[in-house]
Each structure stands twice: as C-alpha cells, then as structure tokens.
Amino acid sequence: MPLRILLIPAGWLYGLVTEIRNLCYDWGIFKISKFDIPIISIGNITAGGSGKTPFTIALAQFMQENYKTIAIISRGYGRKIKGTQMVCDGHRIKGSAEELGDEPVLIARRLPGLVVVVSENRVEGVRFVSNRHKPDLIILDDAFQHRRLHRDIDVVLVHAGECYRFNQPLPAGTLREFKHQLKRANHVILSNADEKRVNDHPLMGRSTATTTTVFDRFIDLENKTIPEDKVRASDRVAAFCAIAKPEGFMQLLLDRKLNPAWFEVFKDHHIFTKDDLTRLTEKCRRYNINYLICTEKDMVKLQSLNPELKTLTESGTRIIACVIQLKFISNENYFIQLRESIDNK
C-alpha cells in the first residue's frame, strides 16, 4: 500500500487544524491587523514550486512605474539569521543568501531600488518597513496562510502541473489547507503552464490569468549577461539545482538544445558547502565540462565559496546561471487590472 494512502488520516487532521484556524479568523476570534498601506499577497495553496518568486519579481517591476517606494516582505525560508531583518534598503544588500534566505536575496538582486525585508511575522515585518521607509505599496511573498495580516488583494498561484483534483493536505499530499479555502483568493493564477495545453486544468474556469516561465539569458558569477552564441549545443554542459521542481529547469535546458552530461538535484533551499562544490568540480573534470549551469536562485548562494569557485574555473569549467522571466499565456493585461484594483480600494 503506498505510503501516501497511509498518511491520509494525518493529512485530514492537519487540514482540520487549519480549517479551525481559518474559522477563528473568519469569525473574528483571532485578530487581523490592518495598515493604511496597499498590500498585495502572493501565495499558494500547495507546498513549494508554484513560481511565486518570478511572479513577484515581474509584478514589482511593473508596479515600479506607478509607485515610488515598494517593499517586499518574505519569510526568508531556510535562513540562518532569524527575526525581522533588512535584506536590502533600496541601495545595498545587507547579507548573504545563507544568512537572509536565497529567494529574498535573489529578489533584492533582481530589483535594484526596492526595499526587501524578511520576517516570520508579517505584521511585525510591515511595522518594521513602514517605520523606516514609508512604502507606497507592500508585496507579501508567500503569505496566503498568514491570516494575521489584512491584505487588499490575495493572489494565489497554482502550478498547472500539480495533481490538484486529487491532492490531499500535508503530509499525505502537498496541500497547505483544504482546496475549498481557495475561495479566499481574489485572483487565481495558473502558473508554469504548458502553452500547448492550458484548457484541461480543474481551475481553468476560475483562473484570472495563466502564466509560464521562459528563458531570458545566461549570467556569470558577477551577474553579467553572457551572449547567447557563447553557449552552444556542441558544448559539454552539466547542471545542478536546489529548487522544488527541478524538472522544469531540466526541460528549459533541453528546449535550448543543451543536453547535460549529468544533472544533480539538491533539496530545495539547500545551502551549498565547500564539499558540494569540490565534488561538483571533480565531476566536471571527469566529464571535461565547459559550462556548469545552475538556476539564478542557486547562483546567489555560491558567492561565499570564492576559493572553491576559483578552483572550478581553473579546471576549465565556467559556472553560469539561467535567468528566467514570466510570460502570460492568457490575460496579458493582468498586472494592469491588478494595479487598477489596488488604486480603487
């Protein structure tokens, strides 16, 4: 009998606890804090890999045209320094991905001029950033289940490849709460969709927009763009990543006619060690690899391993990262509609 079937009772118990908690907020038993700042929450109903980070980056870039000061507040999963911390004050990144979290540091790196804060307590995070920067707009990264804080718009991303119809709450499945709680969302986005097949998902009828991610460019360790003709199908390449759904990254490389000699997968949010890089370097030497390719989220975690990176480079292998960007398959004007919804609140 599959283990997931045995875990269904535990999943229903987990779902029941979250259901009671949601009712306490719905009935006003638990307090919800409200601020006089427009707040957009980007979240999901499943654990990991729904594409929140590229969506958040694209949304913030769009909103920069209309809002002078934008703050992004993230939980900062897997970071070593706990509590409410400033990742970027709009001018300088204050620490490493290991200290502050890989996704917040990636967001700060991709969005110069934006304020980025990490906090397990989103209410405290809003107070913190409001006192210091008085933002015109706050974007919460991964906060659909964080009910203590009022938000003006709840955007929920559902990975189009998830087995949503038959999914179960954790630990039997990947749901963070029962599926019907999706009714709390103002907008549902089908993310990571296949452009050729977008009409067969159970949520297609109520989704606000459909998105996918596409290749943008390769960058080096100094965040410099590598010309497209430098990385060719004839090159010997290998790849590694520490993301929730590595198959998407692998497919992106294959779509570019790059066939990795090997592809190593680490746990999501894995912090790379010297031993990791030493082992990867040895494999690159063994296979005579020209380019070792990772995701942009992985690249921000490699900055503290300079001696080991130098050894890798000296061995004849160049490490590069694949940058992706959000693409709308349906409702290309969604961000305009979202901005208008905020303006009309």
Secondary structure: elements and pairs:
Elements: H1 3-6, H2 8-26, E1 39-44, H3 52-63, E2 70-74, E3 85-89, H4 97-100, H5 102-110, E4 115-118, H6 122-133, E5 137-141, E6 153-159, E7 187-191, E8 209-219, E9 225-226, E10 237-241, H7 246-255, E11 263-265, H8 274-287, E12 291-295, H9 296-299, H10 306-314, E13 318-330, H11 334-343
Parallel strand pairs: 1-5, 1-6, 2-4, 2-5, 6-7, 7-8, 10-11, 10-12, 12-13
Antiparallel strand pairs: 3-4, 8-9, 8-13
Task: Write up this protein.
- With 345 residues, the chain is an alpha/beta fold.
- It has 2 domains: 3-212 and 328-343, Rossmann fold, CATH 3.40.50.300; 214-325, Rossmann fold (3-Layer(aba) Sandwich), CATH 3.40.50.
- The chain contains 11 helices and 13 strands.
- The chain has helices spanning 3-6, 8-26, 52-63, 97-100, 102-110, 122-133, 246-255, 274-287, 296-299, 306-314, 334-343, and strands at 39-44, 70-74, 85-89, 115-118, 137-141, 153-159, 187-191, 209-219, 225-226, 237-241, 263-265, 291-295, 318-330.
- Strands 1, 2, 3, 4, 5, 6, 7, 8, 9, 10, 11, 12 and 13 form a 13-stranded mixed beta sheet that branches.
- Helix 8 packs parallel to helix 10.
Outline:
The chain has helices spanning 3-6, 8-26, 52-63, 97-100, 102-110, 122-133, 246-255, 274-287, 296-299, 306-314, 334-343; strands spanning 39-44, 70-74, 85-89, 115-118, 137-141, 153-159, 187-191, 209-219, 225-226, 237-241, 263-265, 291-295, 318-330. By secondary structure, the protein is α/β, with parallel strands linked by helices.
Order of helices and strands: HHEHEEHHEHEEEEEEHEHEHHEH
Radius of gyration: 21 Å
Q: Could you estimate the helical fraction of the residues in percent? A: 25-40%
Q: Any idea what the CATH architecture of the largest domain is?
A: 3-Layer(aba) Sandwich
Q: With helices defined by DSSP (H or I, 4 residues minimum), what is the helix count?
A: 11
Uncertain stretches: none
User: Can you summarize the main beta sheet?
Assistant: 13 strands, mixed
The rounded distance between the terminal residues' Cα atoms is 51 Å
CATH H level of the largest domain: which superfamily? P-loop containing nucleotide triphosphate hydrolases
Number of domains: 2
Fraction of residues in β-strands:
15-25%
**Anisotropy-based shape:** globular
Q: How many β-strands, per DSSP?
A: 13
By CATH, the topology of the largest domain is Rossmann fold
Mean pLDDT: 93
CATH class of the largest domain: Alpha Beta
Structural class: alpha/beta
